[in-house]
Amino acid sequence: MKPSTLIGNRGRVLVAMLSLYFLLSVNKLYGVQIQPGDIIMPQADTTSRILVIDPTTGDRTVFSAYPNVGSGPDFYDPSGVALLPNGDLLMCELEETAGLYEINHVTGDRTFISGLGSGLNGFPPSRGDGPLDLPRAVTVAQNGSIYLVNQDGFITQVDPSTGNRTLVSGEGVGTGPDFQYLDGGIMNTQGHLLVSDTMQAAIFDVNLQTGARTIVSGLGRGAGPTLDDAGDLTLLPNGEIAAQVVRVHDDNSITSEIVLVDQATGNRSLLFSAIWTDTDFAYLTTSADGKILGSLDVPSGEILSIDPTTGDTTLISGENVGTGADLAYGDMIVVPVPEPTTGMLGIFGFLMMGLATASRYRQQPSLQNDDRRTHRERPQLR
User: Fold this and answer.
1) Which of 38, 297, 339, 371 is deepest in the core (most CB within 10 A)?
2) C-alpha torsion angle, residues 232, 237, 241, 244 (rounded to 10)
3) Are 233 and 206 in contact (CB under 8 A)?
4) Region of 254 on the Ramachandran plot (φ > 0 left; ψ -120 to 50 alpha; else beta)
């Protein structure tokens, strides 16, 4: 067999195997319905539905819903979402269970992990022991550890195997200023938890190993517009925090703002501001291309994309944008776009070298013959 045929065929086989491995990896992680860059949004309108939204077309597909799409218990008022390393969705709920669900990313099946379920009318029974209040946000550390941000001022870690909850910060655990009324929660790149305190108009950094609390912005740290009624948070690619802020006026009109916060200095700058009479941003997240996505607290539901540099907005799903299931408001999370690993890049480089070698062999005339072959209902904000 000629070298050109041997290396060329091997190269083609290896390329095919690599392509199959990559496709299987993506499907294994994200399932058939959910693709990298898609928005996952439980609906906070008591319809017990979780939607997958195409950020390009705005089209909406029901991914999990009680009782007909996916198996498992009912849910009522979801308040926060996060993704596990295996691609499954975590969702915390305020009302019926004050608990935590895991939703299989392929089947949409729902499993109750921890909380105060009633066991009635399709809702799960209680599971796990330990402190629990109304969970406003759920976050996942890089090692897969799960944390709940509880409204009344404490952070718990959840053991998914038992449902047990352990106090991590607040209520006497950890040093630093006490929490009062927590809302949003996100992980930063250092593995610390960032939480917003609505009553104190501040953002805290929580060391999850020690429970220590430090002020990131507010309560005298940083300059710029205040973090009134600070709600949901999202982390931008440049490390800034985007915070949802609400200012209520004497005539009951609302100024809905997005304030950018520098983690290093605590300084704050106004990115977006609008006076609305009947809505505000309920939840924020960050899109695959680094934009801020805001879910509007309106019955019909709208998702805006906000440019983090200019503050310009674009409606990406809602009335007259996108087809499929009806849209309400809710927390959102964007499925991350996977990056090639070092190992994958190494294999790819090896294959390219092999193909290049095969190409050089094909360019040399054969002495024997010339055998050439030609390729992420929420209660009203306070």
Assistant:
1) 297
2) -40
3) no
4) beta
